[in-house]
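Pasting two entries for a bug report.
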Amino acid sequence: MNYPNWNKNLEPSLNSGQPAVDNRPLVLAVDDNHDNLELLTQILDLFGCECVGAVDGYSALSAAVDRVPDLIVLDICLPDIDGIELVKRLKQNPQLIHIPIVAVTALAKTEDRDRILQAGCIAYLSKPFNIKDLETIIRHHLNYQASLVEF
């Protein structure tokens, strides 16, 4: 059977005895709405990314420390600490300061956008976002040229 997302390079080697390594870029997706998070993780998977999800700021911070992502896609309105505070905390950690952060949020006013970008996000998309715009941002900031799904 042919599996469209199967990558033979990820198959474990029978000779080495070591598990397969996932070489896709790792993206941390953060959104407190489970439906939005599920949608985002499916989109990121279609883009060829490995995705880890978090539903609040503290779990996102913990996930980023445990396994440093290549990029973070972040909702700003979170239940515990807001996205702007999370960005500040991420940027205070020398191991995490380099990670590009893309805000995907319902905050759509110009002053919100400016505040989010000034906090340290490299890009801003308002919900509902255009999938092609997200793809462009991800390709640019990950320098990732794999064949992504056409929308």
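Entry 2 (this is the one that rendered wrong in the viewer):
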Amino acid sequence: MSKSRVSSTRHSSRESSYVGDVIRFAGLSLGGGKADKACLALIEYYPKHHKVFLAKIFERIKSDEDVSADIKIHEILEQYHGMIHTIALDSPWRLPNCLQCLQKCPGYESCEEPHIRWMWDYTREKNEGKKPKKLFTPYTQRAVELHLASQLEEPFHIPNAMGANAAPMLARAAFILRRLELPAIEVYPRLSVWRIGNSLHVLKSQLRSHKHAATGEDSRRGILKELSEHNVAFVYDQDRRLMVENNHAFEAFICAITAFLEYMGQTEPRPRNFPKSEDWISFPKEKISWKF
């Protein structure tokens, strides 16, 4: 792929002197349904030496007159065909189960599908004693969005998969992944940042503001500093500067780190009573073991 097709940060000095297997993880921040803000991060894990490196960041992957940003993402990933263990995206790529159902629909008030029953049980429990009572919409929401809004150490209100903001990203992610023979996981970067930062004792104020227009750069700088000082991953200075300036690049990196943590068994499993047919979002455990 010619350099004119996509912008990336490259370092000729990055040819590794390590001997032995390397395991790669990709993180993709789409940055909106049609926005030219997509970033892709590639990290490498060397098990023999217990080291993690941010290998490359491809930033602001844009469409041009004849070539879409989507095909450019494919071209980047094809360079590593067969060499990427998992790709982590900051978006869902499957419709809510309710929209995929082939049964004759009785309405979700009478539906006996497991995920609908789970949503009713969840909603009735949360609405107990509340007025007005809020009803779920299974054609826009998924069980995981309800679960993460109230079952963790603090609420994480994830945009509904078919909500106005998330639906274009879902469509784009589905389009990109349909041609990739690559295991994929979904990540909610804000939750991953929260769990990773807490495990490294980053100030909660920094973790809550990593996307803010006014304070985001200082927040991302502080988080990356702690990641470096705790030897979580080696990041080159120019990539650190890029992630401080560009939140999508930072979140692509967080997605890739979450994929690595999933590989290491450091992400939360599905709850036992969670419907098996429903999508799950990968996010780190509260207490992460950084002993690789």
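Dev reply: Rendering is fixed now. As a check, the viewer should reflect this: The CA atoms of residues 206 and 219 lie 5 Å apart.
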